[in-house]
């Protein structure tokens, strides 16, 4: 549970705020402003602590500490935990309850904010996907009904054309759906994946093999190191990432140019690279390259449909593996997409 | 015409079984169809098909149950149809006696190639009982069990005993995918988990027989399932 985690910065914040509240209350007492204001100052401090820290722990602890501090510094006899006056126990109890409720409510409100943020992201993604799905579906529906209704009046060539359009659109849809399905393999709660040690070269080889089936004409150079790199990963997902990147490279480079797929070891990481010699990445696309939703008008004119989602899915897959991913333009022209995955042994098993 | 192989398609989606039967019929196979598991078992028994194409997602029975039931009385080739991402299901099907699998969505070429391989396998199994084939040749690679020698374009490849065992196992089942578990059991014996060792050995084999281990020509990886030695180059 994340809610129970303790961090050093949050602890320092809590102590700092409580100290400040105590000093302020001492100031108030020096000015002979009474107990009720001191209580208010402490309750305010609990509220602030709940706002700036994560999880329930700090709010609850701060509530209890406030009562103790109030008791220690501001009730007669001072600087002891004794309370002589009869109404103090009731004051303490009410103060504790109020402080406690304040902290829980604040944290709940904060959580709801995070939830609605997630909700917004989800609906943005859904909107982008629906748009991307509708385009090829419209194409398929149009082409197939044309064929069914006008089969006699269409010449052979047009029929062929319509049929191959249907094929292309459905292939595109299948790839899209496969991408979306792969996201469901990432566990929502922890944003983690089930990892098993895989030979990185096998994953590269398989991805290239699949691409070759679809693009038999494409020249692809593959380089793997002499050393066998074992990487903990969800092999299917990383293969999907490589397929997406290679496909993207093919789409953005002229015919008869090579695409290079390399695997190498860098310190304690396996580094995968897909290099093309195409047009490279347009500058205005960089900020949105891995975003699932591009604000309208911000996308460059030649952006290929749906690739935004493909890349953003790659990014979430790599993040779920605790790896990094980046893109750059080559000096010689063309784009380089690179991602790294931690090698075996570096990570602590969960 | 009547000697053409009879194929039983078990698939509950009409659209898919329609296109599969269209493809198979235009390639001169005879086709019968079942949409449910129980029906499939009955038809497998009564028609005695030469090959069964079995979709694992059926409405009435679990596809694996159908597979196990049919396997109780016959060893005819069964090719399982399964979706991408369901690797565990594929491994289970292979362990339950499926001969091969094909991943949805598949192309027609791929489907026909798988069916050809599976049918040939059955044929070569019968042949094997007559005379043990003692040699497998794929491209430049020759694996000679009789002489216990592996050569690449005429040059001897020096393999360790474990590497030799693995390559012979794959060659004896050429064209067929072997699961990691099956290979480990055959090479290291039961009750072992030598998956790491298998991967290291495979990497070494590839460095000895493949021009580029990043683009293997002879032994392909099926991620999450196992290895397959290619038959048609």
Distance between the termini of chain A: 13 Å
Order of helix and strand elements from N to C terminus of chain B: EHEHEHEHEHEEEEHEHHEE
- Gyration radius of chain A (Cα, Å) is 30 Å
CATH architectural name of the largest domain in chain B = 3-Layer(aba) Sandwich
Count of runs of 4 or more consecutive helical residues of chain B: 8
The total tally of domains of chain B equals 2
Largest sheet of chain B: 5 strands, parallel
Helix count, DSSP H or I runs of 4 or more residues of chain A:
8
Classified by CATH, the class of the largest domain in chain B is Alpha Beta
Quaternary structure of the protein:
heterodimer
Unreliable spans of chain B are none
What overall geometry of chain B do the principal axes of the alpha carbons give? globular
Strand content of chain B: 15-25%
In CATH, the homologous superfamily of the largest domain in chain B goes by the name Response regulator
Helix content of chain B: 40-55%
Q: What low-confidence regions of chain A span 5 or more consecutive residues with pLDDT below 50?
A: 301-306, 346-350
> Percent range for helical residues of chain A?
55-70%
The SSE order of chain A reads: HHHHHEHEEHEEHEE
Rg over C-alpha atoms of chain B, rounded to the nearest angstrom = 19 Å
Summarize the structure in short.
The complex is a heterodimer of chains A (350) and B (233). By secondary structure, chain A is α+β, with helices and mostly antiparallel strands.
């Amino acid at each position: 549970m994340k809610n129970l985690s303790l961090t050093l910065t949050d602890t320092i914040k809590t102590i700092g705020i409580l100290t400040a509240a105590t000093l302020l209350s001492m100031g108030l007492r020096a000015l002979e402003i009474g107990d009720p204001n001191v209580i208010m100052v402490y309750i305010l401090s609990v509220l602030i602590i709940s706002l700036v820290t994560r999880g329930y722990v700090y709010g609850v602890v701060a509530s209890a500490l406030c009562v103790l501090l109030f008791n220690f510094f501001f009730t007669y006899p001072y600087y002891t935990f004794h309370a002589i006056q009869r109404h103090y126990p009731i004051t303490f109890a009410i103060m504790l309850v109020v402080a406690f409720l304040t902290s829980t409510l604040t944290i709940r409100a904060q959580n709801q904010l995070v939830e609605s943020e997630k909700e917004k992201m989800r609906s943005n993604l859904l909107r982008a996907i629906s748009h991307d799905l509708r385009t090829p579906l419209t194409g398929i529906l149009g082409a197939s009904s044309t064929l069914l209704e006008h089969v006699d009046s269409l010449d052979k060539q047009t029929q062929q054309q319509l049929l191959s359009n249907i094929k292309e659109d459905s292939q595109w849809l299948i790839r899209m759906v496969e991408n979306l399905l792969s996201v469901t393999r990432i566990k929502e709660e922890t944003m983690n994946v089930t990892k098993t040690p895989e030979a990185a070269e096998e994953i590269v080889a398989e991805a290239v093999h699949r691409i070759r089936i679809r693009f038999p004409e494409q020249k692809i150079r593959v380089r793997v190191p002499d050393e066998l790199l074992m990487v903990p990963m969800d092999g299917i997902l990383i293969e999907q990432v490589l397929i997406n990147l290679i496909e993207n490279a093919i789409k953005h480079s002229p015919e008869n140019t090579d695409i290079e797929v390399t695997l190498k070891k860098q310190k304690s990481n396996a580094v995968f690279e897909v290099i093309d010699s195409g047009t490279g990445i347009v500058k205005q696309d960089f900020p949105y390259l891995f975003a699932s939703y591009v604000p309208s008008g911000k996308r460059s004119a030649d952006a290929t449909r749906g690739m935004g989602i493909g890349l953003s899915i790659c990014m979430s897959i790599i993040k779920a593996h605790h790896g990094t991913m980046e893109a750059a333009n080559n000096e010689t022209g063309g784009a380089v997409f690179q991602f790294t995955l931690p090698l075996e042994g570096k990570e602590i098993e969960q | 015409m009547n000697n053409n192989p009879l194929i039983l398609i078990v698939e509950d989606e009409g659209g898919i079984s329609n296109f599969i039967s269209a493809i198979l019929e235009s390639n001169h196979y005879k086709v019968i169809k079942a949409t449910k598991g129980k029906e499939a078992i009955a038809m497998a028994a009564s028609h005695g098909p030469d090959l069964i194409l079995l979709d694992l997602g059926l409405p009435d029975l679990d596809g694996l149950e159908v597979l196990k039931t049919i396997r109780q009385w016959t060893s005819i080739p069964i090719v399982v149809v399964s979706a991408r991402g369901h690797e565990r299901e594929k491994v289970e099907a292979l362990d339950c006696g499926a001969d091969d699998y094909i991943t949805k969505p598949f192309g027609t070429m791929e489907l026909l190639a798988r069916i050809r391989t599976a049918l040939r396998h059955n044929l070569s199994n019968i042949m094997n009982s007559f005379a043990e084939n003692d040699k497998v040749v794929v491209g430049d690679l020759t694996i000679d069990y009789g002489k216990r020698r592996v050569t690449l374009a005429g040059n001897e490849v020096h393999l360790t005993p474990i590497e030799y065992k693995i390559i012979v196992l794959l060659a004896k089942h050429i064209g067929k995918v072997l699961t990691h578990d099956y290979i480990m059991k055959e090479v290291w014996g039961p009750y072992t988990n030598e998956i790491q060792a298998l991967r290291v050995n495979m990497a070494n084999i590839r460095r000895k027989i493949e021009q580029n281990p990043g683009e293997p020509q002879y032994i392909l990886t099926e991620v999450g399932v196992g290895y397959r030695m290619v038959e048609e180059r």
